[in-house]
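Handout, section B. The chain below has 251 residues.
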Amino acid sequence: MMGVDFESQTAGIQRQPLSFGGYVTANVYWRDGGGGEDGAMPVVIWLHPYSYSTGYEAAYQSGNPVESLTKAGYAVIAYDQIGFGSRIRDGGATFYSRHGGSKSLFGQMITDALAAVDLVMCLSSEFRNNASLCGDGAVFVSPYTDLKARVPDLDLTQLVMAGYALGGNVALHAAALDSRVAAVASFAGFTPMRSDTVDKPTLGIRRLYDLHALLPRLGLFRDDPSRIPYDFHEILPVSYTHLTLPTKRIV
């Protein structure tokens, strides 16, 4: 979606590109009139599925989640996860040639998601003018402060992390690690790993360590997935204790 002329296709929605974390480019979307008299806006960090060629650009005929969420009154932060869309050449063999066994693609996706939470903090009314946290332009926000000023204040207490498939998996892990995430919406986000054997038609955990090369070391457990050190029934309670929105729900 980085290359899409979004404004000509969707009236009533504003967009502002910003950089954050390790120079990841994101777009922040909000509807016309967002903020202002309404105050700080609730925000969704949208994490896309296994869409290698398109990144977070909607690839399904059933709708555009970024557009729908924006029209519903949320500010939406969307970016291509590493190895997808505009960052496709940063994934795969390139990533592991650069980092060896010290990092994994999935770990980097979680790192980027947590940096996106930092971006929300830096666009909140409380912190956006805090020079010690958000003022140098090299970490969380664009170096062009006039561009940053276009974005309405974001409400850090109403921060939702949402994702589909791969994005839902990343969202659950990130929420378990950061108490600033107020709610999680994970759609088709996971299959319990310890029972996901490689003889299944879906290839089991081989999808993660081989097919998509997200977690290469998970392959150490291919013969006995029951030995995997953790599983989702242990992540979900941690995520749940952090959630602060009234419903406290994981979808």
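Note. The radius of gyration is 18 Å. Compare this with the example in section A.
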